[in-house]
């Protein structure tokens, strides 16, 4: 075997960065051996269920729990009155607001939690819910956020009476939450006044919801003897939950044990703290028994955090060649009855200000007004907790609008406006420093592979025959990896993340992280990073997360942050291990440290290749032959505070054909080119892309949570809420470019959210493009066959020969 | 999603099943595949005190040929309908329709009897039963009566069947060799109910439409028979104009319920479109058969 083959064999054996090994998580899941929160069963465990409001807005006149309490097997019925003495009937939200744990004198949204029934089994609990008699006096509901700030609008939050200032500054109206502004308004307005071309469009990103396999739930078990509380919870951020529980309960954080086992996906829905968690904990403390609360699918859709619901006005100003000179955005954000977003504290509209996208726009300004409505609170989910999807959507739509107005091709206008490789690091007009990107290369590759020019010719011919075909492009830039602690915190805790690694004497290892896998394949990919860094096969590295007693503190997994933060921590912890290993190897080989060089899985004496110590040998020595003055053992901890966000990007192309007589949209082709920097595991990346694109497809084509005027939520069950099956899901072709992040230890950016963020725009742009020749510049999602048909019918495009 | 408590009975014969329903009174329900009934119970829309499971009743099983009719046991699952060689040969419309119902999991449990008996206008079999002019055999401890499918449906969840009756048999005709058939269903996704669907059965005589049945799913409180459209085509050559005319006439009888899948206008137009497509396919099949 030659040297190169030998090295390749050792690299292959490591299974490190770049290898497409199969997911370590799958074996358990496909054999039904996952261990979800609902699988937790404890002796004497009680079961809980909520009484929920049937009204969108109502005063509670009385609650009579006597009949429910009389039902055999019912242990307790909690109402706000019971929680009030503990000061737990309200809880702080991550967004600086407060939220009722159990409705206090009034309800502000349909399905709001009113009473918490605890019983011996789930059936008795459900029967008891029906026996709780609540007398309501219905109030007028606000379901259209454009009427939230009407002078005579109903008061949604009397508890905020007199509070003119919220967590993010002055409130303009009693139903107003915050105004958030960023960018240079004067300069932007000035450019708009003189620009040769301007466009403006009203764009709504409808309310929707993620769809994890397991709904939200918790099992709380209070040990009265030791005063310790253990909580299994469907959380993407278990350490934050522990901190919140400790603050709310007054228990020492060390006596609170929070575990997030398998949770079946999160998508942002499982970032916050829900009334059900709090109530199960209180009930367990009060009753001294374990209490399980698991919501059903309707409750999940109706009562836990929704996504989006941004009403956006986009404006672009351009020169005569279609070069964008300025961008202006106004957003009316529908937050529901409480502001329970889960953005970093200083960011009430998340990172919406990524909305200048992949384009070099010198002047920009954003205003976001958050308002209350009589709807479910949230604004967190999904697959992008921080409003990046909305920001990316509005610019990807607006650039199409501009192209249409100017008669420019939609690819051409992008090529004219891209930030160029030599401009990185790039300072955006709205305050970000983009780390790296190769936007033009990506789009050109997609256009070439898909023969974009031929597609446009085909479209032209089809239009002559009256057929509807659309081509959608999305050349998005994401912002992920929150984030630098100087600008990002949650409840005052900086958004670093962590890795703790311990190499055992025989050369295998365990590493623990502050993040929490919910399908992102951390067991697979973190081990690969460590394998490359420390020279131990990934197969021999165990990865653990989710148990706050054993894992180092971290802010959890959402916002594509795990690889940028904890992945970086892994690399750096690995390097600490290697530094110590080098000392030990030098001692064993009786040479100076500097005489050694790292070679895949061992240290070699420079120029003397047969004088080497493998990591396995070093690990053994770490437990018996460390050099004088060096403590035994081989462990490292890294808390990584990222210097910047990472900025993954992509170029997507989508081709749709629309049935003129039914309005059905068929996706003919979807080509997704992603650039997430260094690729840790291509197979895992493909999996993330496929999943995210399927969600994007679902969002664009059918997911919606509309309310009627009375405040009733329509369609909150899987009978209506659109979850595509494999049959409807398009086929995807994936591709990539690699532009490493210069500030990340291994050059990796996050990828989990890219396909969702970028995909929605591609699907949406394709559908709207099919109508471009009829003068259509925008259509709101979702593109259900009924709404698409209505467009066709109104435009007379369904004439028969 | 948790039903109230109920008693469960599992009779081993039809006689026993009928005796049980008599003694349990109005609060009892027959349980077939459970794929309509159990969801309603979980939503507490239906709260029967007693469930009488028909799964162990041998008289309700099986698919047999009887002269120019086929007798279908109501407990035949959709997958049994799909897999039946007899139906594939003699009444291929039914296996074709069953394939459009829900998804493989539901079709493994859901029965054709439950589908027609439930009275849900969104179900697919009822409109097909109208087009086939099927007969439903209803049995109670008092005896047996035969109700034509075309006289069975009164309203949503409201049929000619009495609470103490069981649907004991479904009788459909053997389709003659020249019969064209089609079931066109517009649905949002696999496993979903019809936004609108149309069933067409027709026979031709030297290019002229001798007989045609056109029925509609989920565009009214019951399955609908588009009689005016049928009359307009009978005795005529079916050309594009005739198809269009039939579609327009069919649309006139639609009164669909509005929901997230579409408003009245959309669903009505889709019923029309499904009629167009079903007539065309049935026509092609009738011509091919010649
Ligand atoms: C996800 C999903 C998707 C679906 N999609 C479709 C679809 O696309 N098209 C479609 O047609 N259906 C659809 N269905 C309904 C499905 O086909 C049901 O199986 C069917 O409607 C009822 O049949 P069942 O055997 O399950 O009856 P059950 O649910 O057990 O019973 C339904 C009703 O009929 C009564 N009943 C049943 N059998 C008899 C009998 N022999 N005598 C008297 N009364 C009886 C019961 O008492 C009950 O009231 C869907 C269901 C689900 C869950």
From TrEMBL, chain A:
<dbReference type="Pfam" id="PF02738">
    <property type="entry name" value="MoCoBD_1"/>
</dbReference>
<dbReference type="GO" id="GO:0030151">
    <property type="term" value="F:molybdenum ion binding"/>
</dbReference>
<protein>
    <recommendedName>
        <fullName>Carbon monoxide dehydrogenase large chain</fullName>
        <ecNumber>1.2.5.3</ecNumber>
    </recommendedName>
</protein>
<keyword id="KW-0479">Metal-binding</keyword>
<dbReference type="InterPro" id="IPR037165">
    <property type="entry name" value="AldOxase/xan_DH_Mopterin-bd_sf"/>
</dbReference>
<dbReference type="GO" id="GO:0005506">
    <property type="term" value="F:iron ion binding"/>
</dbReference>
<keyword id="KW-0560">Oxidoreductase</keyword>
<dbReference type="Pfam" id="PF01315">
    <property type="entry name" value="Ald_Xan_dh_C"/>
</dbReference>
<comment type="similarity">
    <text>Belongs to the xanthine dehydrogenase family.</text>
</comment>
<dbReference type="InterPro" id="IPR036856">
    <property type="entry name" value="Ald_Oxase/Xan_DH_a/b_sf"/>
</dbReference>
<keyword id="KW-0500">Molybdenum</keyword>
<dbReference type="InterPro" id="IPR046867">
    <property type="entry name" value="AldOxase/xan_DH_MoCoBD2"/>
</dbReference>
<comment type="function">
    <text>Catalyzes the oxidation of carbon monoxide to carbon dioxide.</text>
</comment>
<dbReference type="GO" id="GO:0008805">
    <property type="term" value="F:carbon-monoxide oxygenase activity"/>
</dbReference>
<dbReference type="InterPro" id="IPR012780">
    <property type="entry name" value="CO_Mo_DH_lsu"/>
</dbReference>
<dbReference type="Pfam" id="PF20256">
    <property type="entry name" value="MoCoBD_2"/>
</dbReference>
<keyword id="KW-0186">Copper</keyword>
<dbReference type="InterPro" id="IPR008274">
    <property type="entry name" value="AldOxase/xan_DH_MoCoBD1"/>
</dbReference>
<feature type="domain" description="Aldehyde oxidase/xanthine dehydrogenase a/b hammerhead">
    <location>
        <begin position="31"/>
        <end position="140"/>
    </location>
</feature>
<comment type="subunit">
    <text>Dimer of heterotrimers. Each heterotrimer consists of a large, a medium and a small subunit.</text>
</comment>
<dbReference type="InterPro" id="IPR016208">
    <property type="entry name" value="Ald_Oxase/xanthine_DH-like"/>
</dbReference>
<dbReference type="GO" id="GO:0043885">
    <property type="term" value="F:anaerobic carbon-monoxide dehydrogenase activity"/>
</dbReference>
From TrEMBL, chain B:
<dbReference type="InterPro" id="IPR002346">
    <property type="entry name" value="Mopterin_DH_FAD-bd"/>
</dbReference>
<dbReference type="InterPro" id="IPR016166">
    <property type="entry name" value="FAD-bd_PCMH"/>
</dbReference>
<dbReference type="Pfam" id="PF03450">
    <property type="entry name" value="CO_deh_flav_C"/>
</dbReference>
<keyword id="KW-0274">FAD</keyword>
<protein>
    <submittedName>
        <fullName>Carbon monoxide dehydrogenase medium subunit</fullName>
    </submittedName>
</protein>
<dbReference type="InterPro" id="IPR005107">
    <property type="entry name" value="CO_DH_flav_C"/>
</dbReference>
<dbReference type="Pfam" id="PF00941">
    <property type="entry name" value="FAD_binding_5"/>
</dbReference>
<dbReference type="InterPro" id="IPR016169">
    <property type="entry name" value="FAD-bd_PCMH_sub2"/>
</dbReference>
<dbReference type="InterPro" id="IPR016167">
    <property type="entry name" value="FAD-bd_PCMH_sub1"/>
</dbReference>
<dbReference type="InterPro" id="IPR051312">
    <property type="entry name" value="Diverse_Substr_Oxidored"/>
</dbReference>
<dbReference type="InterPro" id="IPR036683">
    <property type="entry name" value="CO_DH_flav_C_dom_sf"/>
</dbReference>
<dbReference type="GO" id="GO:0016491">
    <property type="term" value="F:oxidoreductase activity"/>
</dbReference>
<keyword id="KW-0560">Oxidoreductase</keyword>
<dbReference type="GO" id="GO:0071949">
    <property type="term" value="F:FAD binding"/>
</dbReference>
<dbReference type="InterPro" id="IPR036318">
    <property type="entry name" value="FAD-bd_PCMH-like_sf"/>
</dbReference>
<feature type="domain" description="FAD-binding PCMH-type">
    <location>
        <begin position="1"/>
        <end position="177"/>
    </location>
</feature>
<keyword id="KW-0285">Flavoprotein</keyword>
């Amino acid at each position: 075997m030659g040297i190169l083959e030998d090295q390749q064999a050792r690299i292959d054996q490591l299974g490190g960065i770049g290898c497409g090994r199969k997911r370590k998580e799958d074996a358990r899941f496909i054999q039904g051996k996952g261990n979800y929160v609902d699988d937790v069963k404890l002796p004497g465990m009680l079961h809980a269920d909520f009484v929920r409001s049937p009204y969108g807005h109502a005063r509670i006149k009385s609650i009579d729990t006597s009949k429910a309490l009389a039902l055999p097997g019912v242990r307790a019925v909690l109402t706000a009155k019971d929680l009030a003495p503990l000061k737990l009937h309200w809880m702080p939200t991550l967004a600086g607001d407060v939220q009722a744990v159990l409705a206090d004198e009034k309800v502000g949204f349909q399905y709001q939690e009113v009473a918490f029934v605890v019983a011996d089994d789930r059936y008795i609990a459900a029967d008891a819910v029906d026996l709780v008699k609540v007398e309501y006096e219905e109030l007028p509901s606000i379901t259209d956020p454009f009427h939230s700030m009407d002078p005579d609008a109903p008061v949604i939050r009397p508890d905020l009476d007199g509070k003119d200032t919220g967590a993010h500054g002055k409130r303009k109206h009693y139903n107003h939450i915050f105004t958030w502004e960023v960018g240079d308004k004067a300069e932007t307005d000035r450019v708009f006044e003189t620009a040769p071309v301007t466009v403006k469009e009203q764009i709504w990103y409808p309310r929707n919801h993620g769809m994890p396999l397991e709904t939200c739930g918790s099992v709380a078990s209070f040990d009265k003897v030791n005063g310790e509380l253990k909580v299994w919870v469907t959380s993407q951020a278990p350490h934050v939950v522990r901190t919140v529980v400790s603050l709310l309960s007054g228990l020492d954080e060390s006596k609170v044990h929070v575990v997030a086992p398998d949770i079946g996906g999160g998508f942002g829905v499982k970032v916050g703290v829900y009334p059900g968690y709090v109530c199960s904990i209180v009930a367990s403390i009060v009753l001294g028994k374990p209490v399980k609360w698991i919501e059903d699918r309707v409750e999940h859709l109706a009562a836990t955090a929704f996504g989006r619901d941004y009403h956006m006005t986009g404006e672009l100003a351009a020169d005569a060649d279609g070069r964008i000179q300025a961008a202006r955005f106004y957003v009316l954000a529908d937050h529901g009855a409480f502001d329970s977003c889960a953005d970093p504290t200083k960011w009430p509209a998340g990172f919406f200000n990524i909305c200048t996208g992949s384009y070099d726009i010198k002047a920009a300004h954003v205003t976001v007004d958050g308002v209350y409505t009589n709807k479910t609170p949230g604004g967190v989910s999904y697959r992008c907790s921080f409003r990046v999807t909305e920001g990316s959507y509005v610019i990807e739509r607006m650039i199409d609008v501009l192209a249409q107005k100017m008669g420019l091709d939609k690819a051409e206008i992008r090529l004219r406006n891209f930030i160029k490789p030599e401009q990185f690091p790039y300072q955006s007009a709205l305050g970000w420093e983009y780390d790296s990107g190769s936007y033009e290369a990506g789009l050109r590759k997609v256009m070439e592979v898909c023969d974009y020019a031929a597609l446009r010719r085909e479209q032209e011919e089809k239009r002559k025959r009256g057929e509807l075909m659309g081509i959608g492009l999305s050349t998005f830039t994401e912002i992920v990896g929150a984030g630098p602690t100087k600008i990002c915190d949650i409840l005052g805790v900086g958004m670093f993340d962590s890795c703790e690694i311990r190499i055992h004497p025989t050369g295998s290892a365990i590493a623990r992280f502050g993040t929490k896998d919910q399908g992102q394949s951390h067991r697979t990919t973190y081990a690969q990073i460590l394998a490359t860094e420390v020279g131990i096969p990934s197969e021999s590295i165990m990865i653990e997360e989710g148990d706050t007693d054993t894992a180092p503190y971290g802010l959890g997994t959402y916002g594509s942050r795990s690889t940028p933060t904890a992945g970086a921590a892994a690399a750096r912890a690995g390097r600490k291990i290697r530094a110590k290993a080098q000392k030990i190897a030098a001692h064993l080989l009786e040479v100076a440290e500097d005489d050694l060089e790292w070679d895949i899985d061992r240290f070699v004496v420079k120029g003397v290749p047969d004088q080497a110590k493998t990591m396995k040998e070093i690990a053994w020595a770490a437990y018996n032959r460390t050099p004088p003055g060096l403590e035994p053992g081989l462990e490292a901890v890294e808390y990584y505070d990222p210097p910047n966000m990472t900025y993954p990007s992509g170029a997507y192309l989508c081709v749709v054909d629309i049935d003129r007589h039914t309005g059905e949209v068929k996706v003919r082709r979807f080509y997704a080119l992603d650039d997430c920097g260094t690729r840790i595991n291509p197979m895992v990346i493909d999996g993330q892309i496929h999943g995210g694109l399927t969600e994007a497809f679902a969002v664009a084509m059918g997911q919606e949570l509309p309310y009627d005027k009375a405040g009733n939520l329509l369609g909150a069950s899987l009978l209506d809420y659109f979850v595509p099956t494999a049959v409807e899901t398009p086929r995807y072709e994936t591709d990539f470019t690699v532009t490493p992040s210069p500030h990340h230890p291994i050059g990796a950016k996050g990828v989990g959210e890219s396909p969702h963020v970028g995909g929605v725009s591609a699907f949406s742009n394709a559908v709207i493009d099919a109508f471009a020749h009829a003068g259509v510049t925008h259509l709101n999602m979702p593109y259900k066959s009924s709404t698409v048909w209505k467009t066709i019918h109104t435009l007379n495009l369904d004439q028969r020969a | 999603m948790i039903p109230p408590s109920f008693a469960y009975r599992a009779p081993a014969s039809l006689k026993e099943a009928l005796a049980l329903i008599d003694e349990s009174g109005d609060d009892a329900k027959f349980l077939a595949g459970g794929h309509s009934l159990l969801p309603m119970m979980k939503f507490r829309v239906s709260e029967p005190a007693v469930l009488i499971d028909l799964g162990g009743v041998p008289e309700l099983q099986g698919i047999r040929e009887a002269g120019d009719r086929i007798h279908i046991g109501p407990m035949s699952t959709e997958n049994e309908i799909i897999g039946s060689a007899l139906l594939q040969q003699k009444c291929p419309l039914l296996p074709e329709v069953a394939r459009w119902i829900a998804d493989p999991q539901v079709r493994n449990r859901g029965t054709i009897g439950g589908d027609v008996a439930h009275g849900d206008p969104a179900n697919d079999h009822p409109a097909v039963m109208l087009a086939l002019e099927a007969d439903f055999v209803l049995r109670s401890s008092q005896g047996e009566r035969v109700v034509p499918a075309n006289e069975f449906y009164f309203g949503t969840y409201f049929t000619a069947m009495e609470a103490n009756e069981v649907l004991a048999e479904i009788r459909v005709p053997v389709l003659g060799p020249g019969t064209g058939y089609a079931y066109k269903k517009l649905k949002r996704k696999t496993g979903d109910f019809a936004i609108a669907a149309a069933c067409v059965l027709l026979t031709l005589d030297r290019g002229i439409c001798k007989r045609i049945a056109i029925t509609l799913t989920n565009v009214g409180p019951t399955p609908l028979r588009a009689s005016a459209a049928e009359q307009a085509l009978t005795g005529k050559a079916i050309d594009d104009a005739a198809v269009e005319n039939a579609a327009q006439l069919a649309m006139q009888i639609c009164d669909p319920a509005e929901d997230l899948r579409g408003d009245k206008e959309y669903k009505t137009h889709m019923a029309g479109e499904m009629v167009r497509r079903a007539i065309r396919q049935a026509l092609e099949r009738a011509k091919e058969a010649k």
